[in-house]
Amino acid sequence: MSAQHNSWGRVTRRQRGTARLEDLADSAADGLLPFGNGRSYGDSCHNDRGRLIAMRPGAAIRAFDPETGVLTADAGVLLSDILALVMPQGYFLEVTPGTAQVTLGGAIANDVHGKNHHRRGTFGRSVLSFTLLSSDGSRTLCSTSDNQSLFAATIGGMGLTGVIEAATIRLMPVPSANVRQTAFRFTSIDGYFDAIDEIDARHEYSVAWIDQLARGGSLGRGALMAGDHAEHGGPARAPSAPRLAVPFSPPVNLLNRLTLKAFNALYYARAPKTPETVIVPWASYFHPLDAITGWNQLYGPRGLFQHQSVYPFETGRETTIALIECAQAHGAASFLTVLKRFGDVPSPGLLSFPRPGFTLTLDFANSGERTLKMLNALDAIVLKAGGALNPYKDQRMGPEMFAASFPNWRELEAMRDPALMSDLWRRTAMVLDRDQPATRSMSTAARL
Question: Domain named FAD-binding PCMH-type: which ranges (predicted)?
């Protein structure tokens, strides 16, 4: 049996074999992989040699206590469904990524982050416990106090340690889900770095949009949007259905240098020259692109690559400039260029991407070898700065870059369920493991 289960980047699109959860114990040599809603950009959710276990069918929220803000749900439940239930009761996710169309299991497996990492760290810090199904048929309760090693390996473990069946998370009480946003534009990248420390000290959330095409004295210009939950406004409702949709992939990339230059100029001009505070709907602040169904198709039939890196505070300004200039030198245009500051709140996950420093996200239409050459050049800048790449957004980094980003990858390999495999792990860790043999995956009993 096969179905179309693709990642958000759409660089590779094909029929992928599917399996049931019950098939985990009888997996073939090429393995299985749990699949949520396909919002990972790269191949961490692909297993083209094996099969995928669809986690969404039948998933439901099992319990929610409005007194404590503790919720239990199946792994295939979308974050949007959780928000729809808890917002009217005065709660919100402690950490939400840039889309609510991800599953609870996917948020844990990718240890996603949001616009408030400097305050609350990653999604994994909200996780109280989960049940993990292993290929030997056993179920294990994992938490900060039970099976701690497996708990840590599963958070950010990309679905490789076992199948998360259900999880219990902590939500945070808020006076309103809507956001009191303070926004202003900065004329160059210096404006961001000169302001961000104070901004993050004062606000729960912050994110900056960057005009990646601006040059000269305007290089890195953009707009910074800081926010806190509004003190008034009452319970928020779930957003209405998306108003716009891209029903098919156009034959060419519509997000090219010409269109983006015009868009960037307009977006920058509309940003306030001086700080301006307004109340904005929660959905437009946290998940603006969820309002456009299929927006990833605007990149054309060959899909897109997203490059997200993190690099230390000490060289943040210089590294950000180098990355922007590198993309410009290769003639590339990034539609979604986002700059955020990660704090020093540690993640409970073994292989989590966020760490103290700055993170820059760029995305590019796939132009084949030209794009790959540029991405390799961006990697080299990140590597020189002592940074790392986000594996959940990647679909082409080499084993060496992966090892430099996650030097403790062998610890996850030792905890990996032998029945589970992904294209990313096969492309990176398995190549490293062949080149430098080490202890293979342990049995479930040994892992526990």
Answer: 1-174
